[in-house]
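Morning, I've got a small favour to ask if you have a moment. I owe you a coffee for this, so here goes:
>
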Amino acid sequence: MGNEIFVSKHHGLGNDFLVLLDMADRFRFTSLEIRALLDRRIGIGSDGFIRAFPARPDSQAVASMELHNSDGTRAEMSGNGIRCLAQALIDADIAPHGVFSIDTDAGLIEIQSGSSAGDTIATVSVGMGMPQIKEISGLRQLGHRFKGVRVDIGNPHLVLIPEFELSVEGLNDLDIAKLGPELESKFPGGMNVEWILVMPNRKDVHLRVWERGAGITQACGTGTTASSFVANHLGLAEEQVTVHNPGGDLMVNIGNDQCYLTGPAQKVGEIQVSAKQLRDMVLLVK
């Protein structure tokens, strides 16, 4: 690492990220360094860390995206994180206002921004691809039966739909701090888990999420998209839905060959961290 790094902090409905625009491709970080930066007590604090670096010469993308969870592990994709990165790229004049694409570990992702450089809150639509359903089965939690749907959207998800009467309040009362790790541990490599409740109007979905490598978060873009696709596939929801995450609402439009996720990205500020400061943070990582 060089002498200092400059990161910006953003969030999508409370799901927050540190973004480093490393367009000279100078920086490499260890898992411990990422854990230290993202720690909410000894570091800056965030759910994830995004490093943007130059795209491959044969790519149409304006940049490539490398994503890490708060536990230091690498992740393929984040629907909220990529909106935050899009905002940072536009602010730095690396990406244009309007349509562009970003390379990710989940493939080339199409972005459409309705906001301009300098906007504190940007509205961004992301082409999330078409999720692939891997397995549908039943499972029991807390004495109740759920339909469990494993789905891949560049990263793995388990969408849980109650097969019993459950209110929004009941969904919010689920102890996912206990249930999430129990379920995730059953899958090699971990699993993102969503508990969802589809409203009778078929246009509103309530969601809670346990994210692999981050735990409980206020919103999950890939989880929102995967859950909407599953609900539509099972005949429970329309092609256009509003998904109510704990941190706020995201919109999903299911097309013939792609799902589009639309929501806000909000810039919080900019932070400078010296190499010595980062080394001192790392010494405190447990």
